[in-house]
Every structure is written in C-alpha cells, then in structure tokens.
Design goal:
Blueprint lengths: L4 E6 L9 H15 L6 E4 L18 H8 L7 E8 L5 H14 L4 E6 L15 H15 L13 E4 L3 H10 L2 E4 L5 H13 L5 E10 L3 H21 L13 E4 L1 H13 L4 E5 L7 H24 L1
Parallel strand pairs: 1-2, 1-9, 2-3, 3-4, 4-5, 5-6, 6-7, 7-8, 7-9
Length: about 300
C-alpha cells in the first residue's frame, strides 16, 4: 500500500453579493500554498444550480474557465475538472476549449468527465442511450485535438466517473483513470475500484471527500456539524447518495490522527488519489487553511506510519 496522492477540490461558487473573481481572490492563499505543501492537483467542479441559497450550488458553470483563471496562482502539477458535465457541451466546442485550456494552463489539465443527470441529455441522445453517446464524445474529443493542439502530446488525461458498474468498466476501457464524486460512500468506491481493476484499468482511482481537520476533536466536530453535515443532507435530498450512510463513509472529519486512520480505509479500498474538498460554503477560510496544512504536514506522515507499522 502507498500513501494516497493528495489534491484539493475547491467550492468556487461565491457567497451572495460576491463574484467568482471575489471568491478566487479569497481562495488565493490556499492556491498558493498547495504546491509548496506537496499537493498534486487542484480540481474545479461544474454545476448549473443558480437558485439563491440552494446548498447544491457550490460550483461554477464552467470548470475549464475556472481552472484557467486560477492557474497563475498555483504551482501544482495538475488542474482538473471534477467533473465537467458532458451533456452541457457541444462536442466540437468542447474539444477546442479543452485544447485551449491545456495551453493556457501550461499542459497541466486533467479532464474529469461525468454523465450528469439524465434530463441534461434530452437534446443529445434521442434514443436514450446516454452511455453510448458519452463514449462517442470521448472518441470525438481525441480525434479533434488537432488545432489548436493541446500541450500534452496525447491530449489531457481523461478521468471518468460514475456510480454504476458500467462506469468503472468504461473508465478502464476508454479513460485514463476512474474518479468518484463526493456523494459516493466508501463501500461503493471500493466496489468501483475493484471493477475498474478487474476490467483492466491501470490508472488512478480517485475519490473526492469533504474534509475538515483540526487540532481538537471538539473543533473538528463543531465545524463538521456546521458545514459538512448540511451539505451531506443536501446531497441526500437531491438523491445523490443513500441516506443513512455514516458520515465517516462520506467525509473526513477529525484530528490528524483520526483522519489518518480514516484515509487508510480508502487506501485499503483501492483509492490512490484523494481530492480534499476543504472549502464548503460558509466554512471560514482559516479553518480551510488549517485543514490544508494539517493534511500535508501531519496526516500524510501518520498514514505512512500506519502502513509501515
């Protein structure tokens, strides 16, 4: 077993009365510290929820544009879409925008792709075979990366998500890695990792986790109750995870020692990369910075001790 590679998954939607530029300026200290602390990547999600106060409106409507905007502020090796919603994009435009984004980020782009909700496919798949249309999109992307050329010779790596067994097999067959979203509980991630490997997948197995780490259990518990639990409740209400799953199977909350033991469970489940979602809406940025620092400086060494010991 190996210590998982850590990245950051940032909630970029601004608070009421602010803009995305304001939000990026507020997050800039985290972006600047991520590389020196050893984080491998930064991820931006994509959503189209605009209702004021909706707890599910935590991303931007264009993950590629968000990554290009934040790229100058970080030295991490990879900038990933986590995930770009394929049915919202026309294939030709998507291919060009991805190639341009790879150029503007100096060849650091990772293209995480998700199916998105079925309702978004109404104009794209008349016969309802959205899986087949998704696969054609990936094929078209790679065939159209000719002008403008991406910086990466084969184009950005394609990481594919999804909760059904077919998604893990698809990631192994046409993708470069498998990725699990915030709403996938640990048992599902373990099964998908097994399916991905059984189908011949040799790339990363990634999971996105809401994460709060603090010096004391009481502070971590308070922050988790205030900012993590309401978001998990919103996921449950939206039907994106099964209510009743313990928080420990959906989020990483606690002291460095507690979180190290929790992360080891993901390593044992086959996860190679963990994207820590450290800035849910409303969480004070000093608490996000504490999580950022403790994960890199204390949790990682503790995981190595657990693996060695």
């Amino acid at each position: 077993m190996k210590v998982p590679t850590l990245g950051l998954a940032l909630d970029l939607a601004p608070p009421a009365g602010e803009t995305y530029a304001d939000r990026l300026r507020a997050l800039r200290p985290l972006l600047e510290r991520a590389g020196p602390l050893g984080y491998d990547s930064i991820w931006a999600g994509e959503s189209y929820v605009y209702r004021r106060g909706d707890p599910m409106g935590f991303h931007s409507p264009n993950a590629l544009m968000a990554l290009v905007a934040l790229a100058p502020f970080t030295t991490v090796a990879r900038l990933g879409t986590g995930a770009l919603l394929v049915p919202a994009w026309e294939n030709h435009r998507l291919a060009h925008d991805v190639a341009l984004a790879d150029q503007l980020t100096d060849g650091r782009l990772v293209l995480g792709l998700g199916l998105g909700p079925r309702r978004m496919w109404a104009a794209r798949s008349a016969d309802g075979r959205i899986g087949a249309e998704f696969e054609r999109t990936v094929e078209n992307l790679r065939s159209r990366w000719t002008e403008p050329l991406p910086v990466q010779p084969a184009g950005p790596p394609v990481w594919i998500g999804g909760a059904i067994p077919k998604a893990a097999e698809r990631a192994a067959r046409i993708g470069d890695a498998y990725t699990a979203s915030t709403g996938y509980e640990l048992g599902l991630i373990r099964k998908q990792a097994e399916r991905y490997r059984a189908a011949g997948g040799t790339g990363a197995v990634s999971a996105n986790r809401l994460t709060v780490i603090a010096r004391s259990e009481s502070r971590a518990h308070h922050l988790g109750q205030s900012y993590v639990d309401p978001l998990l409740a919103a996921y449950a209400a939206a039907g994106t995870w099964q209510p009743g799953a313990p928080r420990d199977d959906l989020a990483l909350v606690g002291t460095p020692e507690t979180v190290a033991r929790a992360m080891l469970r993901y390593v044992e489940a086959g996860v190679t990369h963990l994207q820590l979602r450290i800035s849910p809406r409303g969480l004070p940025l000093d608490a996000a910075a504490e999580t950022l620092d403790l994960a890199a400086t204390e949790v990682v060494p503790l995981i190595q001790e657990l693996i060695d010991g």
